[in-house]
Every structure is written in C-alpha cells, then in structure tokens.
Amino acid sequence: xxxxxxxxxxxxxxxxxxxxxxxxxxxxxxxxxxxxxxxxxxxxxxxxxxxxxxxxxxxxxxxxxxxxxxxxxxxxxxxxxxxxxxxxxxxxxxxxxxxxxxxxxxxxxxxxxxxxxxxxxxxxxxxxxxxxxxxxxxxxxxxxxxxxxxxxxxxxxxxxxxxxxxxxxxxxxxxxxxxxxxxxxxxxxxxxxxxxxxxxxxxxxxxxxxxxxxxxxxxxxxxxxxxxxxxxxxxxxxxxxxxxxxxxxxxxxxxxxxxxxxxxxxx
Length: 267
Ligand code: PGA
Hints:
Structural class: alpha/beta
Strand content: 15-25%
Number of helices: 7
Bound molecules: 2-phosphoglycolic acid
C-alpha cells in the first residue's frame, strides 16, 4: 500500500499531497489502482478525465485492472475536460477519438455513459452551458483526474490575465498547440486555435482531484502549482484551494520539489 507523504505549501489550511515514484509508469499504475478501487467501491462513480501523452500509461493500467479484476463499469459516468473547437468526434485528432481508443472502447463504455464537449457545436456558449448542467444533473464530479501543461495549464485553462470560472471557449497558447501537434500528424498548423474546456471552478467542485505529471519539462509547473502563489499565470496554482488533491509524480517532475521536502515513496 502506498503511503502518501504530505508536501503541503498551500495557504488557508488546504493541502496538496504529493507522492513521487521512481518512474512515470509506476505513478500511472498507482493512480490506476486507486481509480479502479473507487469504481469497484462506487459503481455509479462520476469520473472526470484528461487527455494528453501522460495519461496514456494511466489508461493502459486502468484497462488492465478493470479487466483483470472484472470490475463492472456499466454504472460509471465520465466527463472529459476539454475538446478542440471545430473538430468532430470522429476525427483522429479529437480528444473523443483519443478516449475511444485508450479507454472507452477497451472497457466497453456505452455512448450514454460518456460526456464530451461537442467540438463542432454551432453555438459554443450554449454547449458550455449544457455541459455544466449535465455535470450538475449527475450530482457533480466524484473524482477528477488531471494532467498539467508545462505552462501550468489545467484542462485548457491557459495562463493569462484572467481565468474563466465555468466551462468556456478558449484560445490555445502557441506552446499548447505545439504540444498537441502529435495528434495532428505532427503538423502544428493543423492544431485548432480554439477549444472548449471545463473552467477551474468546475474542476474545483470535484469532490476529489488527482493529478498525474511526468517528465522534467513539468517540474517547474509542478513546483509552482504546489508551492507558488495563487496566480492566473499558473492556473494549476488554484488547485491549492481544494481540500483533497493528490499529485502523483515521477522523479523528474518532482525535481524542483525535492529540496523542499517532497519525499520519494517507494511503495
Ligand atoms: P501531456 O498534456 O500529458 O501531453 O503533457 C498534459 C496537459 O496538457 O494537461
């Protein structure tokens, strides 16, 4: 059993719990074990989900656990964090097709169980409001799984002068479009300029937040998220306001926390 080590740097009594693992695969496996356990204990779990390169190992391990342990998923409801604007669900670069490939297909989730922002909506504002209502109608998110951008973004809540509270339309930063080029045949110019994303307020209303980060390029954002001031320049810093956040890291992503008390957990 993994024992969390606290590395709280937050104000107002909030606490971000950091757990560091030797490798990214170990961190992803630990997270998958916890999520699988929650699904087993609460079959009607409402689960918020991320996309990106980092969660691939998490989804692989989660699929393995669900299959190996025969965990029923027919009561599960999922909400993904974000989707590119102007991209249909069927297009290979869409986050919807990523999720079909990495999770929904392999564990057999039915279309009625998964919730997604519609990238080809003719009315983005209305679509964002629909999403907020859908989350509320399910009683809110029980567990929100997150990644973090090297620029400190959460979902597509990009650094800037202000943050939107609720699900909204967002203009992607150049570094975010570059980071997503892999899903569009390596062509940055093919990555949409806009997306729809849950807002930080929507995310912070989840009962439990778990964040997975790996690689040296995430170390600065991770350090600012856990110990930095609350600032719209690092949207992830607002996670310090939540009372139940677990951050699972590989050693590289934890590199800038190490000298300040984050500890390695060998499990
Ligand atoms: P990544 O994306 O795992 O591909 O680095 C994470 C994120 O942007 O949230």
